[in-house]
C-alpha cells in the first residue's frame, strides 16, 4: 500500500531517510508522492513540500556519531549515484533532487542504511505528478432534444493526473446546476444527466473540472441545449445511463460510493438493495435523490452484491455489481531484538493480517535470506536458525505482502562467544542435606558455546552411580544422602575459550520430624485456641517454625491479633488439633445479569459455602466507571432472604456500564463478595426533537452521546424519518460523534408537515438501539397576513396599552407563535415580543407628553409576517415632580391626624388628583396605602406600636415623588401621645415639645417652647416631679425647611 504525498513539479525535492530514532516509532513511510503542476507553482510561488521516508531501527544510536551510517538510494531498483554537479545529492542521508524532472524522476524510491550492525531497507515510495491541462476544444455543437426526452451532456475532461471533481454552470457563473431526482452529475465521468428535459432547461451548460490535489480548476466550452420543435417525447421506461462496475474492490475502513442514474419519462425513481436480501446497516447513506449509495468505514460484512433499480410507470430496469473487500497487510506480531549464544536456536515469528492472506519473506542486511542451509528454515512467517554462529549476526527484516501492499518490520540478532565464567553464579558456600533425603547442587556458569561440566569431591574426580548423577544442565544430584557424602565439591566448566571452576561444601544433618499427633476441634469465631507443634531434630541446628493456614503461609504480626506463637515448653504438653471454624459465608457464585432496562437490572446468583452457619440474607452492590468503588443499591424485593437467589436492582442511571456483586450474611457476619458480573449497560438512546429551519427543510436534533458511552471507535448516528402515516423509513448516516443536528432539505417537503423521526447509534462493533419515535414538523412558512384592529391608548405618562385582533393560531402551512410590537419615537425603536395568542400588551418605560408610532407583526419559527397599519398615541403629561412638604401630625385616642401643604403641578405636568398615604410598622415591612383627595387624613391605628409614614401625590400621569419618611413613636392607649409641629422662622426653626409625664390619678402636660437653630440636635430632660412615675428623654433634630 502506498500513501499519498504532495510536492511541486519543476522545483527541488528532499527525500528524508531518518535513522536516528530513539524508540520503535513505527514502520517506515510508504506512499504515492504526487507532484503539483506548474500552474500550482505559479500560484504558490515559494511553496515547496518535503517528503519524509523513515527507516525504523532497533535501539538508540543506530546512526549516531559513534556508529555512522552509509545511506544509498534506489530509483526503480537502480542505485542513484550522486555526483558533483548532478541533480542528485545526499545531505546527512537525505536525498535532494534539484530541478525536478516530470519524466525522469517519477518512479519507485527506496532508501538503504548500513553500519557495523548491518543493513536495513525502507519501504517503497512511489512518486507521481498531478496536473490538469486546459480544454482544447473552444466550441461545442448544440444538443437538440425534444421536451420530455432524456439527455446526456458530455464533459470530456482534458488530460490530467490526480483525482477530479465535477460541477456544471447553467448559463453563467455562479448559477450552478442543482442535483435532484431529475438532474445528476457523475463524479466518475463528469457528465451531466437530465432524466426528462423541460423547457426551463434550455440554455448553455459549462463543465467545471477541479483537480483535488492541485486545487486548480478549468472550465470547458459551453454546450448549448436547444428544444426541438417537431413534437414532445412520449413516455418510455427507464434507461440506466450511470452504472457501477460489475466488481468494485474496496479497501478496509475506506468510503465507497456507487453511482446510479436513469433517463426516462416520467422521471424514474432510484432504489437500492442487497441481492441477498439483507437490510442496509445504519451507516449506509443514500443521498442525491438515491443517485449515490455511500458506505463509510467499509468492513468485511459490507461486501456482497448490490443492485440499483430504476422504475417509473412505464417499467423498470436494474444493474448489479459486487463490492469485494480487501485489506493491505498489517502486523499483528513482530520479531524483537535478541541476543543468543553460539549453538543456540533462534525462532522469530512474524504474523500479519490482510486480505488476501499475506505471504512472507525475510531479508538479512537488506538482501533476501538464503534458506538453502538445513539449519535455516522459513515457514509461513516463522524464521528458525539452529546452531547459531558468529556469521549469523546482522539486521533481519520480515516482509509481509499481498497485492495491495507490502510492509517491513525489523529486528537485530547478536551472537556472543565467551569463556566459562562463575562470577555471576558461584556455587553455594554451604549446602545442607537431610540424611536419607535428596540434594541438588546447582552449577550454572556463563559460557558460549556450551562446553563440558565435570565434578570433583575433594581432590578426586567424582564418579557417577545410581545415587550420584550429573544432570544435563551440569548440576549434581545425590539421592539417599548419607553422612559419608559430606565434604567439599568442585564444579569444573570448560569450552574452546577457557576453563573455570567453583567449589562449595555439603553438610549432612539428622532429619527433623514433627512428633505431635493430629486431632480435631470445633471452635467458634472469636474463641482462642492453641495448636501444638512438637519435633525431634539434629541438635546442631537451630529450629525455625513455619505455620500454614489452608496451605497459605502465616505471617505472624501481619494478621492482626489472629495468630500468635506460643513458647515451645508450653507446646510440649499439647497435642496437634485441626479446628473446625464457624465463620462468615463464602462468596456467592455465578453472579449474572439476566436483563437490563433503562433504570433496572435483573440479577441471579448461586449460594456459596455457609461455613457451618446458615446464610440468613444477601446484599447487592454495584459500581460504574463514575462511582467511588462499590456502592449498595436498592432492590426488589427490598430484603433478600437466605434462600433468595435472584433480585431486580432499581434506580439505575441510563446508558451507563454497571458491574454487580453479591454478599452473603450469616449469624457470624458478612462474607466475601462474589466475583463481579460481566459489565452490562442500561438502555438509552439519544433524546430526539427538532422542527423549524428554512423553507423545504426538516431539522432533526438530538443530545450527543458522551465519549465515554460510545464503546469504541467508528461511532456515528443513523437518522431515520418518514412522513406521518408512511410505511418505509428514509435513513441518513451522520459519522461525526459530536453531531447533534441533521437537516434534510428537499423541495418536495410541504411546509409544517408532521414527520416521525428516530435516531440510532453504531460503531465498528455493530449497531445500537434507536430512540423512541418522535413526531416533529417540517419548516413552516412565515405568517402571510398582518393582525387587524390595532388600537393604542395612553394609560399613564410612561405606559401605553396596545390591543389587536388575533390571527388564526395555525393552519396546514404555518403557526402563529406570538406577535412583535414595535413602538417608534423618531428613529429609536424597541421590539416587544408576546408569546401565545395574546391580544394586548402594556408598553412601559415611555416618556411623558410624547408621541409614539406603533405597528404589529405576527411571527413563528420561520420569521415574521407583514406589518400592520401604523397607529399613533400620545402619552399623558408626567406626574408632579414636587413632594408634599410641611407635614404635621398629632395623636389622640389611638388616632393619628396628618396635615400637609397642597402640591402644585408645573406647566408640563398633570394636575394632582389625590394623595396616597403609606404607613407601616418599620421601614422594611410592606406598607398599607390609603388614598384621599384632601390635604389631611385621620388614621385609626392600633395602640402600643410605632409607625413610619410617607405621602405621595398622584395624577392621571401616574404617581409623583414621595415625601420624606415620618417616624411616629408608640401610641399608648387612653393617654395623650407625643406630638410635634414645625413652623418656619426668619432665622431658623422653632419646635414645641410636649413631654407627657404619667401622674396618678391624672396627667399633666407641660409645654416647653424654645427657639432652635437649623440642623441641630437638642436634648430636653424633664426633671422628676413628686407624683411622677417616670420621665422621658427626648432627642430632637431640627431641620431647615
TrEMBL record:
It is found in: Cell membrane. It holds the Pfam family I-set. GO terms for cellular component: axon; plasma membrane; side of membrane. GO terms for biological process: axon guidance; brain development. It comes from the Eukaryota. InterPro entries: FN3_dom, FN3_sf, Ig-like_dom, Ig-like_dom_sf, Ig-like_fold, Ig_I-set, Ig_sub, Ig_sub2. One of its GO terms (molecular function) is cell-cell adhesion mediator activity. Its main location: membrane. Belongs to the immunoglobulin superfamily. Contactin family. This is Contactin 3a, tandem duplicate 1.
Amino acid at each position: 500500500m502506498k500513501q499519498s504525498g504532495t510536492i511541486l513539479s519543476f522545483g527541488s525535492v528532499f527525500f528524508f531517510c531518518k535513522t536516528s530514532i530513539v524508540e520503535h516509532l513505527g514502520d517506515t513511510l510508504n506512499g504515492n508522492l504526487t507532484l503539483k503542476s506548474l500552474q500550482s507553482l505559479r500560484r504558490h510561488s515559494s511553496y515547496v513540500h518535503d517528503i519524509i521516508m523513515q527507516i525504523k531501527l532497533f535501539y538508540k544510536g543506530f546512526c549516531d556519531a559513534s556508529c555512522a551510517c552509509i545511506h544509498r538510494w534506489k530509483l526503480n531498483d537502480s542505485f542513484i549515484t550522486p555526483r558533483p554537479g548532478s541533480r542528485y545529492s545526499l545531505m546527512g542521508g537525505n536525498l535532494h533532487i534539484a530541478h525536478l524532472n516530470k519524466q525522469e524522476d517519477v518512479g519507485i524510491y527506496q532508501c538503504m542504511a548500513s553500519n557495523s550492525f548491518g543493513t536495513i531497507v525502507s519501504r517503497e515510495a512511489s512518486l507521481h505528478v498531478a496536473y490538469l491541462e486546459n480544454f482544447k476544444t473552444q466550441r461545442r455543437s448544440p444538443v437538440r432534444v425534444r421536451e420530455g426526452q432524456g439527455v446526456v451532456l458530455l464533459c470530456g475532461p482534458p488530460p490530467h493526473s490526480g483525482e477530479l471533481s465535477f460541477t456544471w454552470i447553467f448559463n453563467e457563473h455562479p448559477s450552478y446546476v442543482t442535483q435532484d431526482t431529475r438532474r445528476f452529475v457523475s463524479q466518475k465521468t463528469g457528465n451531466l444527466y437530465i432524466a426528462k428535459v423541460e423547457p426551463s432547461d434550455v440554455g448553455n451548460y459549462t463543465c467545471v473540472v477541479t483537480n483535488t490535489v492541485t486545487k486548480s480548476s478549468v472550465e470547458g466550452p459551453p454546450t448549448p441545449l436547444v428544444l426541438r420543435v417537431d413534437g414532445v417525447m412520449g413516455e418510455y421506461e427507464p434507461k440506466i445511463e450511470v452504472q457501477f462496475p460489475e466488481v468494485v474492490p474496496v479497501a478496509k475502513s475506506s468510503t465507497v460510493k456507487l453511482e446510479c442514474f436513469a433517463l426516462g419519462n416520467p422521471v424514474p425513481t432510484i432504489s437500492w438493495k442487497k441481492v441477498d436480501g439483507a437490510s442496509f446497516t445504519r451507516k449506509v447513506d443514500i443521498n442525491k435523490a438515491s443517485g449515490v449509495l455511500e458506505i463509510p468505514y467499509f468492513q468485511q460484512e459490507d461486501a456482497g452484491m448490490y443492485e440499483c433499480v430504476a422504475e417509473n410507470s412505464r417499467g423498470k430496469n436494474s444493474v448489479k455489481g459486487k463490492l469485494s473487500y480487501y485489506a493491505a497487510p498489517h502486523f499483528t506480531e513482530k520479531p524483537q531484538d535478541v541476543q543468543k549464544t553460539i549453538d543456540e536456536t533462534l525462532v522469530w515469528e512474524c504474523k500479519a493480517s490482510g486480505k488476501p492472506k499475506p505471504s512472507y519473506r525475510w531479508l538479512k542486511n537488506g538482501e533476501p535470506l538464503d534458506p538453502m542451509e538445513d539449519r535455516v528454515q522459513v515457514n509461513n512467517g516463522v524464521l528458525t536458525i539452529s546452531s547459531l554462529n558468529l556469521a549469523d549476526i546482522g539486521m533481519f527484516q520480515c516482509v509481509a505482502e499481498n497485492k495491495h501492499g507490502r510492509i517491513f518490520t525489523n529486528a537485530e540478532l547478536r551472537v556472543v562467544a565467551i569463556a566459562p565464567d562463575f562470577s555471576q553464579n558461584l556455587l553455594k558456600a554451604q549446602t545442607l542435606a537431610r540424611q536419607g533425603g535428596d540434594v541438588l547442587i546447582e552449577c550454572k556458569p556463563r559460557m558460549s558455546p556450551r562446553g563440558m561440566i565435570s565434578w570433583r569431591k575433594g581432590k578426586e574426580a567424582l564418579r557417577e552411580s545410581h545415587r550420584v548423577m550429573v544432570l544435563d544442565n551440569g548440576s549434581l544430584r545425590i539421592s539417599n544422602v548419607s553422612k559419608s557424602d559430606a565434604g567439599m565439591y568442585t564444579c569444573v566448566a570448560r569450552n574452546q575459550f577457557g576453563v573455570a571452576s567453583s567449589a562449595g561444601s555439603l553438610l549432612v544433618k539428622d532429619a527433623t520430624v514433627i512428633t505431635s499427633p493430629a486431632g480435631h476441634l470445633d471452635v467458634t469465631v472469636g474463641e482462642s485456641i492453641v495448636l501444638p507443634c512438637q519435633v525431634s531434630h539434629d541438635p546442631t541446628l537451630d529450629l525455625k517454625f513455619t505455620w500454614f493456614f489452608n496451605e497459605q503461609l502465616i505471617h505472624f504480626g501481619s494478621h492482626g491479633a489472629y495468630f500468635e506463637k506460643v513458647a515451645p515448653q508450653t507446646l510440649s504438653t499439647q497435642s496437634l488439633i485441626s479446628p473446625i471454624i464457624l465463620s462468615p459465608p463464602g462468596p456467592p457464585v455465578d453472579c449474572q445479569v439476566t436483563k437490563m432496562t433503562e433504570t433496572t437490572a435483573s440479577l441471579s446468583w448461586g449460594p456459596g459455602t455457609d461455613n457451618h452457619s446458615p446464610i440468613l440474607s444477601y446484599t447487592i452492590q454495584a459500581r460504574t466507571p463514575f462511582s467511588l468503588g462499590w456502592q449498595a443499591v436498592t432492590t426488589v424485593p427490598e430484603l433478600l432472604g437466605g434462600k433468595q437467589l435472584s433480585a431486580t436492582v432499581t434506580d439505575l442511571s441510563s446508558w451507563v456500564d454497571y458491574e454487580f456483586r453479591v454478599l452473603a450474611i450469616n449469624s457470624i457476619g458478612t462474607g466475601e463478595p462474589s466475583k463481579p458480573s460481566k459489565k452490562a449497560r442500561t438502555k438509552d438512546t439519544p433524546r430526539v426533537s427538532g422542527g423549524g429551519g428554512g423553507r423545504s427543510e426538516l431539522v432533526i436534533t438530538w443530545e450527543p452521546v458522551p465519549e465515554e458511552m460510545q464503546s469504541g471507535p467508528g461511532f456515528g448516528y443513523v437518522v431515520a424519518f418518514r412522513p406521518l402515516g408512511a410505511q418505509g423509513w428514509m435513513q441518513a448516516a451522520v459519522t461525526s460523534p459530536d453531531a447533534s443536528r441533521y437537516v434534510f432539505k428537499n423541495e418536495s417537503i410541504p411546509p409544517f408537515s408532521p414527520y416521525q423521526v428516530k435516531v440510532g447509534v453504531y460503531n465498528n462493533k455493530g449497531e445500537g438501539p434507536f430512540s423512541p419515535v418522535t413526531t416533529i414538523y417540517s419548516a413552516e412558512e412565515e405568517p402571510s397576513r398582518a393582525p387587524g384592529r390595532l388600537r393604542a391608548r395612553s394609560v399613564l405618562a410612561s405606559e401605553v396599552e396596545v390591543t389587536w385582533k388575533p390571527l388564526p393560531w395555525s393552519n396546514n402551512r404555518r403557526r402563529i407563535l406570538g406577535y412583535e410590537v414595535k413602538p417608534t419615537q423618531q428613529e429609536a425603536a424597541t421590539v416587544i415580543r408576546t408569546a401565545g395568542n395574546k391580544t394586548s400588551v402594556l408598553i412601559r418605560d415611555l416618556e411623558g407628553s410624547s408621541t409614539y408610532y406603533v405597528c404589529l407583526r405576527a411571527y413563528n419559527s420561520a420569521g415574521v409576517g407583514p406589518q400592520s397599519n401604523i397607529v399613533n398615541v400620545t402619552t399623558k403629561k408626567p406626574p408632579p415632580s414636587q413632594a408634599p412638604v410641611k407635614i404635621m401630625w398629632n395623636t389622640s385616642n389611638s388616632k393619628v391626624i396628618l396635615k400637609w401643604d397642597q402640591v402644585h403641578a408645573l406647566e408640563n405636568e398633570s394636575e394632582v388628583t389625590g394623595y396616597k398615604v403609606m404607613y407601616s410598622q418599620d421601614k422594611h415591612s410592606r406598607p398599607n396605602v390609603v388614598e384621599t383627595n384632601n390635604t389631611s387624613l385621620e388614621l385609626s391605628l392600633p395602640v402600643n406600636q410605632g409607625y413610619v409614614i410617607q405621602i405621595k401625590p398622584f395624577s392621571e400621569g401616574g404617581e409623583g415623588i414621595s415625601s420624606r419618611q415620618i417616624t411616629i413613636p408608640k401610641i399608648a392607649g387612653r393617654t395623650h401621645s407625643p406630638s410635634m409641629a414645625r413652623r418656619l422662622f426668619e432665622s431658623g426653626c422653632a419646635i414645641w415639645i410636649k413631654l407627657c409625664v404619667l401622674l396618678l390619678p391624672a396627667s399633666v402636660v407641660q409645654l416647653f417652647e424654645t427657639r432652635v437653630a437649623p440642623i441641630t440636635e437638642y436634648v430636653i430632660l424633664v426633671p422628676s416631679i413628686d407624683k411622677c412615675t417616670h420621665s422621658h428623654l427626648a432627642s430632637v433634630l431640627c431641620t431647615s425647611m
